[in-house]
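Running log. JK asked me to keep both predictions on one page so they can be read side by side. First protein, sequence followed by its tokens:
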Amino acid sequence: MKKMRERTRLIIQLAFAALTNGYVSGFLGQKLYKGKLKQFCLPGLNCYSCPGALGSCPIGALQAVAGDRSFSFSFYVMGCLVMLGALIGRLVCGFLCPFGLVQDLMYKIPVPKVLRKIPGDRYLRFLKYIILVLMVLVLPDRVTNIIGQGDPWFCKWICPSGTLLGGVPQVLSTPALQASLGFLFSWKMGILILVLALSSVNYRPFCKYLCPLGAIYGLCNPVSLYHLEVDKEKCTRCGACSRACGMGVDVPKAPNSPECIRCGKCASVCPHDALQFRFVHRKKEKHGQAENIEN
């Protein structure tokens, strides 16, 4: 059951990554797709500059609007993110984000997992919220050039997904870019290499500490319709689910933690079948016990 669920999730991840980055002409002709689909934001990180990208990255879109001298905030993009978050929460991170897939594949490399918990983990988890507010929303809007245009700070200075999926392919295919590389590209390559290296010994460090998109979806986790339910009558607090959780969630205590990516590993290893992921419409009290009314 565990292997089948993990295999199914991997297939979904690979299929979605291929579907949303399926502009083959971009890889062959070295031209970005700029058709009508680029008006729509994909649910996960997906760099606009990736040769195969058929949609836009929501974090990139938020910065682009915030940095425009005519606008300050994209209600369309944020509305889409909140709506999706309210529906499925960080399931997007677990199943639909290409860079989440990259980190999962790196973690499969058979090396000793010597860094299961990074020093300062508890406090570093707040960093993604600081990045969201400061580098995605505030700086692009407030720090502008002479014509009033702001920079996409997160994409420009941090995003390893953009470096891997967009920057590296562009540099490899464009000799003119290779001749003009400087500090910024070296800086971002350093971040990418560090994240990939950490991903081989620590599960999804980018998702835990740096991703502003994960921060948005994580805030929706406690109220999203797609929930993890713990049957307290079956649960013996054996700890198997929490040990299996790569995101470090205490599952029985906080089943819908902002850190949960809905990957399903906890439910797969539960020896008592006490955990279930399902869509929940509302809750009501009956005979002193909470009952879930499902859609």
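And the second, directly underneath as requested:
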Amino acid sequence: MLPQGIFLWKSGDGGDVPPSDSASVAASHPSWGEAMAACGPFGEVVEEAGSTFLLGSCRDAPPTVIVRDCVTTMTAARGLAGSGVLGPWGSVAAVEQGGGRGQLRRPWVSTPGNLHVSVVLPGPPASGPWREALADLRPLLLGYVFSEVLLELGAYAQLKWPNDLLLEGRKVGGILIEEARNVVVLGMGLNLVASPPDDMMREDRSVPAGILQIPDHRLTALGLWRTLVTRGKSVYEYLLDDWTPARFLVRVANRLAWLGQTVLVREGGEGKYTAVVKGLSSNGGLVMSRGERDTVLYSGSIFPLRTPRF
């Protein structure tokens, strides 16, 4: 298993991951040029499970494997976790990925300079209230964890249920969690240097895209990820150790976009309807007030009334 540090993928059975070198990564975007200079030189060879990695000088964060390009970082991270190369909080960060996807498996544009990363998540605790609750609440928990770190950096990101990050009403990032063969991987994309213009986005989008702005901070994509994963791990462990799921749900509800507001809801066969965002259910569903009754939304999309798109 890889130790702490920043690694370059050099060779091995990487499936859809071709070998990477520091020169090609650095040339891809100025942000990555700065990152390679800050974390280089990459010279120490590390062999793990038939693969070869080059270790850089930055060794103060959980292991992150950098790749120049891949199909998806989620597939790469899952493969490295399955072979024992990456443990919990180990990650894969790509300059570009050809098959990035978001909610409902929609394509996610991967522009060099933005953050495209997937991280292996720890399993549930062996005992305590989170043992059974974590599976349902994991997306909200991780969204809250990373929004807390962004808040520490000066960016107040709201959570658009179930898995988007909003800044001043614009989508600046999203997370996706998948589990296969007992390996849970979180994929995240953050717009740091570019976002799709309004006229190029889907007609049925709920909010326009935007770029994450962090006041008084100039972080590269890799530098931001090192902060997110290091601090995020601490926040995650604190929540599971000191908070009950019920207490967490009250706290995270206050970070929901459009809490207490009327929204349009698009839900499967029921079509669309208006409802008021009321809060969260005990298993992470979105509680909606529809006239004199409450319903719980487990899948679907919500749209602010000021910019409906149908």
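Observation for JK regarding the second prediction: The longest strand covers residues 170-180.
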